[in-house]
Amino acid sequence: MPLPVPTVPEGVDPAWLPDEAFRPLGTRRVLVRGSGPLVETVHGEVAAACARFGGRVERDASPEPYDLLLELTGDDGGEAFTCERRAGLTTVTATGAPGLLYGLFHVVRRGPAAFAEDHGLQCHRPGLALRMLDHWDNVAVHPVMGQVERGYAGGSLFWDDGRARGDLARIRAYARLLAACGINAVSVNNVNVHAVEARLLTDRIDEVAALADAFRPYGVRTHLSVTFAAPMVLGGLPTADPLDASVRAWWAAAAERVYAAVPDFGGFVVKADSEGQPGPFGYGRSHADGANALAAALAPHGGTVCWRAFVYDHRQDWRDRTTDRARAAHDQFAPLDGEFADNVLLQVKHGPMDFQVREPVSPVLGALPRTRLAVEVQATQEYTGQQRHVCWLGPMWSEALRFGHEGPAGPVVGQRASALVAVANTGDDPFWTGHPLAQANLYTVGRLGWQPDAEPAELLDEWLALTFPAAPRRLADGLRAVLSGSWRTYEKYTAPLGVGFMVQPGHHYGPNVDGYEYSPWGTYHFADRDGVGVDRSAATGTGYAAQYPEPWARVYESLDTCPDELLLFFHHVPYGHVLRDGRTVIQHLYDTRFEGVAEAAEAAEVWASLAPLVDGARHRRVAERYEEQLRGAREWCDQVNSYFLRKSGVPDERGRRIY
């Protein structure tokens, strides 16, 4: 029997899978061959589309001609598939059931083009094996962090009133959305593991199993964030030393119980020795020692440890300019290359700091050739507008994945890595991501995980075509216009030329130029009367630039070659320093603030003009967000410009009003 397609609860947006997106599939004659649970998911999708639009689906054999053949030819569990169009027949074949599922969504994504011109055999396989969302969800509402830490789309999809949600209909619909864009794993709780969440590993594993049951029909595996101190917190042991035999035995027994409840469990996500979380340092052990202890427990079951490399001194003395938070991950992990077990993924933020609007690509991603790496990005827009501002991050992520540490001719990040992990931007909001247009970020994460070298603009067009399948050209053009340049617009009115953290402490929303300047967090811009920026050169600064191999160490070291967009990340320069476009740093700062406000206002006007073409609820929600974005952009502009006018004493050469 075909598996019924999950029903999106009433009032919840179908996102990039509205019924209309399936019309080109649902009007055809389709043959589905193969067996197994995921094949039944494929059959169910096709049957629902055909029932809706008048097509026909058969199973396994029939003499009549077909428009589409979806065939599973093996059972290797792989995700690859082939697609061919010949003599009026589109054929999708796979040797693993997940591949057939992805092949189906490939056909849906292509729409009418999937049944148009003939083409030869095309092979499709994911560039990165693991494509995961980390949900920073708390089981119980945290007094400071709330239900979802850094969550801007309502409460948790998984947890309610301290327990797993009883009605899993929306989670099944969510699994379908994720599979359609290529995501194959989720971690269902916060990396900051509190006492309640810790118990998901043991006496509350049945709740995790229920969630896993909801995700499984769409090939999405469930992972858990665990506390390194679990043997003490949950097992009553006197130690969590990763080299202690009793500790290793405890982890092995815990893994056995987890896999008994969730046979396809994906593994553990671990934040250790970071921002107060416990870790191996407390026992004089290395990160490799800690990760490998958990990896040994998971290895017999095929599980993976995602060990986060976000480790730094968060009790810095702001007076000490020799300390540099940006250096921390490389200093700690590069010497451990080759020491991690094969089922450990070192999860590295794409930049060295913390998901700022502009950072260099982390040198760690090129420094451990014998270690499996996961690139971590943040779909939830903690520092990029918190889903109150339009900020499509596809171009930023693409730049990171295409970056070659050994130069443009060398292997790029997307080729070196084994996984792409994103901090999730979804919640129980009717539009999933709070801001309807922020759905584009989630879709893009999945598709970049599948194809790291994809052109972001093409992925944006895919999302537009799926989300608004019957949209007139004017709507598509308008949406493309407001989204495609939104990251650079946000950068223009916020932090300039690679400096960051000019935000309100704690919640990180809105401008506060000195908000973290004298804090212990190591997030400084060092603006004074003469200049601004952080000297990270090897010659006179913290030496961070030297963590890169050539040619980048040389490029970043020199003022003559450092890219302007990263200038203040690597160098402290006078306000009169001349950029490549002929403007001084201070004038660039003034100009781009005003430009950012103007671009935000223009985008809001474009959106307003699209009202007749968009359903009312969606248009109202986005219009409200644009109103807040424009207010916020003006506040950023005024505060940043006023701050630097008062610091530098240099007036705007164009005479615009600065307070």
TrEMBL record:
GO cellular component terms, alphabetically, are: extracellular region
Q: What is the lineage of its organism?
A: Bacteria, Bacillati, Actinomycetota, Actinomycetes, Kitasatosporales
Alphabetical list of Gene3D superfamilies matching this protein: Alpha-glucuronidase, C-terminal domain, Glycosidases
Where do the Glycosyl hydrolase family 67 catalytic domain residues begin and end? 124-432
Instruction: Mention one GO biological process in which this protein takes part, according to its record.
Output: xylan catabolic process
Molecular-function GO terms, alphabetical: alpha-glucuronidase activity; xylan alpha-1,2-glucuronosidase activity
| InterPro entries in UniProt | A-glucoronidase_C_sf, GH, Glyco_hydro_67_C, Glyco_hydro_67_cat
Please report the name of this protein according to its UniProt entry. Answer: Alpha-glucuronidase
Q: Where is the Glycosyl hydrolase family 67 C-terminal domain?
A: 433-656
SUPFAM superfamilies per the record? (Trans)glycosidases
